[in-house]
Design a protein that fits this description.
This protein has helices spanning about 5-15, 20-25, 30-40, 45-55, 60-70, 85-95, 110-115, 135-145, 160-165, 180-185, and strands spanning about 75-80, 100-105, 120-125, 130, 130-135, 150-155, 170-175. The chain is α/β, with parallel strands linked by helices.
Length: about 200
Amino acid sequence: MNILFAETLKKLRTDKGLTQHELADQVYVTRSTVARWETGSRMPDAAMISRLSSCLDVDAGLLLSIASESSEVPNVIMVDDRKIILSGGLPILKEVLPNAAVTGFTRPSEAIEFARFNRVALAFLDIELGKKSGLDLCRTLLEINPRTNVVFLTAYSEYSLDAWSTGATGFLLKPITPEGVRNQLRNLRYPFPSGG
């Protein structure tokens, strides 16, 4: 069962404003077939993925790579140079994302090393990380894995314009709350099974 593909397909379909029935008509399958793809109980074959990519205006290679990924536990990281912020934020992330592996880092270098060996689905990054900028860390994480969703955390709303230029998917003012995290999850560029 590939939940990542299922959720991605559903998001692409809804972003195009198509119902399951309309998508089914365009790729010549039944609505129940699309429904099974979107629950992860069935996977389309390579030829059908090519047809879906044309219909949804998305790269076939991207859809194929998502389809080939396993249903592994998503990695979620939080990077903040203040331990007190991590100790308050990590339990909230674990509450909202019970099926994710949630890890905190106080140093950007540790987060980068982690990301090199673990696919990071979602990163919550402080913008001011001592000598290193969270904006630079975001760019590095996206170089490692362009499908990482990045949400910036800060106490200063004036950073929001700079944050958007990095390829981030969201912006959250501190202190983080469960509802704030849930709102960010609804707007991820690359959805993943959150279990929340």
